[in-house]
Amino acid sequence: MRGIFVKIYLAFLFTSLVAVVMTLLLASYYREWSNESVNLIAPTGGYISAAELILQRGGEPLLIEWLLTFERHPSVNAYVFDSSGISLLAGVPEVVRNYALSSESYDALINPLGRSEIIVKAPISSYDGRFYLLVVEFIHPLSVFNLPEYLAWGFAASLALFALLGFLLSGYFTQPLRRMQRSVRAMGLGDWSVRIPAYLQRRGDEFGELSREFNQMAGKLERSLQDQKQLVRDVSHELRSPLARLRVALELARLDSLAEQQEFLDRIELETQRLDELIGDLLGMARLEVEQDKRLWQTVDSEQLLRDIIADARFERPDGDIRLYAQAQHCELFADPTLLAAALENIIRNALLHTRPGTSVDIHLQNRQNCLHINIRDHGPGVADAQLADLLRPFVRHEDARQRSTESLQQGHRGYGLGLAIADKVVRAHEGSLTLSNHPQGGLQADICLPLTN
User: Fold this and answer.
1) Which of 13, 42, 71, 438 could be 382's S-S partner, Cβ–Cβ 3.0 to 4.6 Å?
2) What are the φ and ψ backbone dihedral angles of 75, each rounded to 5 degrees?
3) Which keywords appear in this protein's UniProt record, sorted alphabetically (predicted)?
4) Is the separation of the CB atoms in 124 and 134 below 8 Å?
């Protein structure tokens, strides 16, 4: 949001400074484009008559005295040159001297950006017939106030004024966007009840229209998620209740069963267990889609979390060999510990199931580029490279690479292709990534990348 604020602020500032520059240029050229220059040139007739009269009555001494009186005038100067081109007074500006000695014409010289804005010359004669050249210089009004300093202070004052106004206006225009951003962030954290305040909805501009549409969208999403949550609860109840009754009936059937019927009853129990696990996985995936409340997240020590999962796995599979290589110094994640533990447990159990007897499941924990990498590798047969991406899709299995058996199911392997799919959804919900690949020395490896807390 700071980006749009800066852009609007700079736009205001740039527009204001361009307006200031254009105003100064227009003011400078105003006399040339209007009749103001004519109005300035017109009074020079009086200066010419007065200079010629003074020269004829008092000669050069009186004329020099008259010229010195212009030093007290802030915007007009007068100079007189004799027939040899020598000025009666010292300190004649170069532009005035060049204009006076030029023989091109007697037209006035107008320079709206220079110190000498208008220069006019005319011949005058003395009583004894000698000719002189009178030059009248009209100084630019801004030059009277020290033009460079005047422009510098004016530009600095304009910059400060427009910087303040631009800051206030930019804040005013981006305030609705910041408020909407906070609402969107709250929705991203799982608060679906958030709404744009009423005062923004009452606005008659695009911000007001966007606020109203946002609230309508948020209301529909909240109702949709509530309906999905209710559906998950209803499905869970409707599916689990028959399974519970089926288990009760199964146990009652065992009481009156014959020895040769036990094998079939065991098969029924196994299939019931598999169905219960399948329903659990499906409901878990559904909850991941609709229940991601980040308000329940907390700081998790990933190394300790892995050690707890490994301890549980070793308890369930005493013959399994799991080795943890922790090479990370900073292992804290901001995550849902229950979901993250379930995802890692699915991958580790899957690796334990498929690693060859007498081999281990190797887990490497590393910190690289502000990202925690968890690499879980088994020493099993691996999977064809063309089929790796499909393993993260629900209900995808490759029997040629991952042989299943009744024994493996009894050891806790669900075998429906949902474990890795659930793990992938959990990792992506934590803004991470899960990548499957075949290790160069054999076996399947899962590389999990999760962003670390700052």
Assistant:
1) 438
2) -125, 0
3) ATP-binding, Kinase, Membrane, Nucleotide-binding, Phosphoprotein, Transferase, Transmembrane, Transmembrane helix, Two-component regulatory system
4) yes
Whether pTM > 0.70 for this model: the answer is no
CATH value at residue 221: 1.10.287.130
Both structure tokens of 4: 């749009």
Q: What is the 3-state secondary structure (H, E, C) of 389-428?
A: HHHHCCCCCCCCCCCCCHHHHHCCCCCCCCHHHHHHHHHH
Among 111, 112, 114, 134, CA closest to 122: 134
Work out how many domains the chain is built from and give that number.
3
Q: Which 3-state string (H, E, C) describes 331-345?
A: CEEEECHHHHHHHHH
Task: Report yes or no on 120 lying in a domain.
Answer: yes
What parts of the chain have a pLDDT lower than 50?
Answer: 1, 35, 399-416
Q: Tell which of 244, 261, 295 closes a domain.
A: 295
pLDDT tens by residue, 32-87:
555 455 555 656 778 888 888 888 888 888 988 888 887 777 778 889 998 888 88
Domain boundary among the residues 263, 295, 327 is at 295
Residues 310 and 430 in one domain: yes
Residue 396's closest CA among 405, 404, 387? 387
